[in-house]
Write a structure and sequence with these properties.
The protein has 715 residues and is an alpha+beta fold. Helix content is 46%, strand content 12%. It has 24 helices and 22 strands. The strands form six sheets. A nine-stranded antiparallel β-sheet has the order 6-7-8-19-15-22-13-12-9, covered by helices on one side. A four-stranded antiparallel β-sheet has the order 14-20-17-18, with helices on one face. The protein has a three-stranded antiparallel β-sheet with strand order 1-3-2. The longest helix has 46 residues.
Length: 715
């Protein structure tokens, strides 16, 4: 049930003792406390927060059958135990009749009412027709009042009295009503999905519009003040030349009295008038959907990851010369400084040096910035020192002292660096003296050690680390297939052994790799279908998780930067149609397959090398599903990517570029059920663009007759 439907349920806000209070509603009550609507705390009455002494207490002309209007604080016990206390800051309490509790029909509980609540109610009741009935009913349910009490609250209300007392107190109530009746839109980890980050652009556009309205209001106010000042400047200049003669005119004397008694007071009110209400209110509401520090850090680390994977220097990124980028977006010295600071906080001194050096270069070129050279040099020299380069660190520290001779830390660092350099020089002299003496019998031993080292280096080069292979493939520098192997790859029209759906209209299929056998289907999903899948998935996107190999618990990981959602066939006919298409083209049973997973990659989005199937050391990987291991993978590409984002297989050197409307397919298991370890694959970081994919993981159960075992044990 949506929050809007939740609010429209009449009984939602009038709970009996056996009901449980919605935790989200209780959280909203707590938040409203900070905004001045009322105070809330868990615990005893003695623990409740005290209200301000200056708060004006307004009694309402309301009484229930048994209890009068109370100006004290009552305690209400929630069903799950503990107590919630509500103070009466501008909110006297009205207790329902204790007779209800005695009769057992309904327990007495606290009605939260106030002058500004009644004012809102009065405002709503001035509306016409359906709008009035809908809005009034919603506020009535929100208050939890009985019909009789609600009629008394909204009856015979003096308009001017309510407006005078409550004009500045309506916002908290409206915010509470808004928060209670709209669905929750809180999003976490913005940086992991470009698709969801697009909403932030419209949020910022709305804030800019609101800010311009505020600027216009301030300019209008200032223009009125300037006109008043200009008018009085000319008047006082004339009057002070002959004060007695000027005031001798009775009209001038009257106007002077009028100005000082009335008009200057009006001017004071104008100057003190607050024009920020609209902008601040909008900013306060929108701030709930702003990215967090984690998002900023995640986006910064994504840039550092792209820098390493695609071997980009800091200046290339700062000037916006990224491959595949249509527009150049420049980075300021402050942006470079922030990247360096985030790397520094992560004890990444290599990237700290790169970005602090870039910030310093832009400052040296005359760029205006809020960041000063002294701060940049301080970070830069320390990062270089941490990498063991004492001479360079000393040079930058001396440069810092030229700008700020009184920098205490730099003074101490210069002495320390000089001491360490002198110590290193002495150590080198001692080593060289020792090496000159024994040149007799140790030479053959040294030769053998050098030969062993060279042999080891050759072996290391042959057995290249997976990380290096992965990054090379992402850059397009992987192993190239020989012409003889490439000649065995074909493209064809495919109907899957004369499947009835594709006999007259076969699909285009091309071979991408031979071992493992990877095929691509062209024009297999239409633009309309892609947009529908995105539309269904976008509201459900959540940070993608991995299964912890030790605990089996699903958790987020820094090597998988994306958001995903699962779509079932019964949610929309189009999803069922897509599932049927996969079954027709692969010949595999879809009833035991996992639901269609839709993924959108974020800033520098990637998924480092992994297997889709469960290995022998993970016997319980898919035990809960009861459908066996993942026999095959079907992967739709639902967008073109300007640069990066390839699917690579590091062990064999295969690289598949994303192409909108196509799909790739491969088997994860051999016919005998053993895992094919050559299918270990990865999604390269997205350098420029927005990558959308959807995949179908097909399981073993149901495939016994569709993909039977071979006659040989190895098949």
């Amino acid at each position: 049930m949506s929050k809007a439907e939740d609010c429209s349920s009449a009984g939602r806000w009038r709970r009996s003792a056996s009901d449980t209070l919605d935790s989200q509603v209780r959280e909203r009550l707590r938040r409203m406390t900070a905004k001045g609507a009322y105070m809330y705390s868990r615990g005893s009455t003695a623990d409740r927060p005290r209200q301000a002494e200056t708060v004006e207490k307004i009694k309402l002309p309301v009484k229930t059958r048994d209890d009068p209007v109370r100006m004290d604080t009552r305690t209400k016990v929630w069903p799950e135990g503990g107590a919630a206390t509500f103070s009466t800051k501008l909110r006297p309490t009205v207790m329902r009749g204790s007779g209800r509790r005695a009769s057992g029909k309904r327990p007495a509980y606290e009605l939260l009412a106030s002058a500004h609540m009644a004012s809102v109610a009065w405002t709503l009741l001035q509306m016409d027709g359906t709008k009035r009935r809908s809005a009034s009913g919603r506020l009535y349910r929100l208050s939890g009042a009985t019909p009789r009490t609600w009629r008394r609250l909204t009856k015979n209300t003096d308009t001017r009295t309510w407006k005078r007392k409550t004009t500045r107190k309506l916002l908290p109530c409206w915010c509470f009503l808004l928060l209670s009746c709209r669905p929750s839109l809180s999003v976490q980890d913005f940086f992991t999905s470009i698709g969801q980050m697009t909403d932030l652009l419209f949020t910022e556009k709305d804030l800019v519009t609101s800010l311009k309205d505020y600027i216009q209001a301030e300019e209008n106010k200032l223009e009125r003040v300037k006109k008043w000042a200009d008018k009085l400047e000319s008047l006082t200049a004339t009057a002070t030349q002959d004060p007695e003669g000027f005031l001798g005119h009775p009209v001038n004397a009257f106007k002077l009295m009028k100005r000082l008694n009335t008009e200057w007071g009006d001017l004071e009110s104008l100057v003190l008038s607050d024009t920020t209400d609209g902008f601040i209110s909008n900013l306060t509401i929108q701030r709930r959907y702003f990215p967090t520090d984690d998002d900023q850090t995640g986006a910064a680390k994504a840039i550092l990851r792209l820098q390493d994977t695609y071997k980009l220097d800091a200046n290339t990124i700062s000037t916006g010369n990224l491959p595949g980028a249509k527009d150049k977006t420049l980075m300021t010295a402050e942006d470079c400084y922030e990247l360096g600071k985030i790397a520094y906080s992560d004890v990444d001194y290599y990237h700290t040096e790169l970005w602090m050096a870039q910030a310093l270069m832009q400052l040296d070129d005359g760029e205006e910035s809020t960041v000063d050279k002294v701060t940049v040099l301080d970070y830069l020299s320390y990062a270089i020192y941490q990498q063991g380069q004492l001479e360079r660190a000393l040079v930058y520290t001396k440069q810092l002292l030229e700008l700020d001779p009184e920098h205490q830390r730099a003074k101490g660092n210069v002495k320390y660096f000089e001491f360490q350099l002198e110590k290193q020089r002495k150590a080198k002299l001692e080593e060289s003296a020792i090496e000159k003496e024994p040149e007799k019998k140790e030479t053959p031993v040294k030769k053998k050690e050098m030969e062993k080292k060279q042999k080891k280096d050759r072996n290391t080069f042959t057995l290249m680390p997976e990380r290096k292979k992965y990054e090379m493939l992402c850059r397009g520098e992987g192993i190239k297939m020989t012409p003889r192997r490439a000649s065995r790859l074909f493209c064809r029209y495919y109907d899957n052994n004369r499947n009835p759906f594709y006999v007259l209209g076969p699909v285009k299929q091309q071979d991408e790799w031979d071992r493992p056998y990877i095929v691509r289907f062209l024009n297999i999903i239409s633009h309309k279908e892609i947009e529908k899948v995105k539309e269904l998935a976008k509201p459900r996107l959540r940070r993608a998780t991995i299964s912890n190999p030790t605990t089996g618990v699903l958790e987020t990981a820094p090597y998988r930067i994306s958001k995903s959602a699962w779509l079932t066939g019964y949610e929309d006919p189009m999803i069922d149609k897509i599932n049927q298409r996969i079954e027709d083209l692969t010949g595999l049973e879809m009833d035991t397959a996992e639901e269609l997973q839709v993924a959108n990659y974020g800033v520098g989005g990637q998924y480092e090398p992994h297997f889709d199937f469960g290995r022998k050391d993970e016997p319980d990987a898919f035990k809960e599903l009861g459908t066996g291991n993942r026999i095959a993978t079907w992967l739709f590409y639902m967008s073109d990517v300007a640069s990066g984002g390839a699917t690579v297989f590091p062990d064999v050197g295969a690289s598949v570029q994303p192409l909108k409307g196509t799909a790739v397919f491969w088997y994860n298991l051999f016919p005998n059920g053993e895992g094919d370890y050559s299918t270990r694959h990865a999604a390269c970081p997205v350098l420029v663009g927005n990558k959308w994919v959807s995949n179908k993981w097909i399981h073993e159960r149901g495939q016994e007759w569709r993909r039977p075992c071979g006659l040989n044990e190895t098949d």
